[in-house]
Amino acid sequence: MGGDAGRTSIYSYLSITPNGDVHLDRPKDDRIIDELFNDLMNKRDFKNLPPPVIKQMLSYPAPKKWTLIQSDALQEYQLERKRATIGPDGDKSAPEWYVRRIVDGSISLKELGSLSVSLRTQPIGWVKRFLEMQGMVALVKVLSGLSAKGVKNDTDVTREYEIVKCLKTLLNNKVTLLSSYVILDKC
């Protein structure tokens, strides 16, 4: 391999072994790791964290940054590989799948919990897609229906709690706030 000049994409460092394992070659120049780490922070919306946390993350040593970059790239690779072998139920990790389940009323409590985690941990593009598919609107409609119910059982209360967790995560996200302005303008 030549020098690191001009190699700023994580995919430039990715190789797949004959048995399908992913390997990332660490750049020789720590400045490239810093650049890749900044890309990761933007992709995962870490820039919306409190300033002291951002400062701390930016001051991580290069090996720690590289570990986080590798972990993210491996997660992304595994997700793409999983999407390539999707079964008849569709991709259960896709925002469209969650919205479809919310709308048809078949989403379980466990799946709502998984949605809450996905809204916190997936890339911004995933959250944007969830919003574009009217996922937030679907959550609000289900919550509204549950709230209007006179007598609630334990499952209803737990379902409300899980939906509120999802909405809280969405409302703490800058992308959602920007999308909310567009939604409110349409009302």
Looking at CATH, which topology of the largest domain would you report?
A: Leucine-rich Repeat Variant
Give the C-alpha Rg: 20 Å
Strand order of the largest sheet: 1-2
Beta-sheet strand percentage? under 5%
Name of the top-level CATH class of the largest domain: Mainly Alpha
The coarse overall form would be elongated
| Biggest pleated sheet | 2 strands, antiparallel
What is the total domain count?
A: 2
What is the arithmetic mean of pLDDT? Answer: 81
- Number of DSSP helical runs: 9
Q: What is the architecture of the largest domain at the second tier of CATH?
A: Alpha Horseshoe
Uncertain residue ranges: 1-5
The CATH superfamily of the largest domain is known as Leucine-rich Repeat Variant
The tally of beta strands, per DSSP, is 2
Q: Would you list the SSEs in sequence order as H and E?
A: EEHHHHHHHHH
What is the CA-CA span between the terminal residues? 56 Å
Q: Can you summarize this structure?
A:
The protein has 187 residues and is mostly helical. It contains nine helices and two strands; from the N terminus they run E-E-H-H-H-H-H-H-H-H-H.
Write a structural description.
Helix 4 (95-103) packs parallel to helix 7 (135-148). The protein starts with 13 loop residues before the first strand and ends with a helix. The protein has two domains: 10-84, no CATH class; 95-186, Leucine-rich Repeat Variant (Alpha Horseshoe). Strands 1-2 form a two-stranded antiparallel sheet. It has helices spanning 30-43, 51-58, 62-84, 95-103, 109-121, 124-132, 135-148, 154-171, 174-186; strands spanning 14-16, 22-24. The chain is mostly helical.
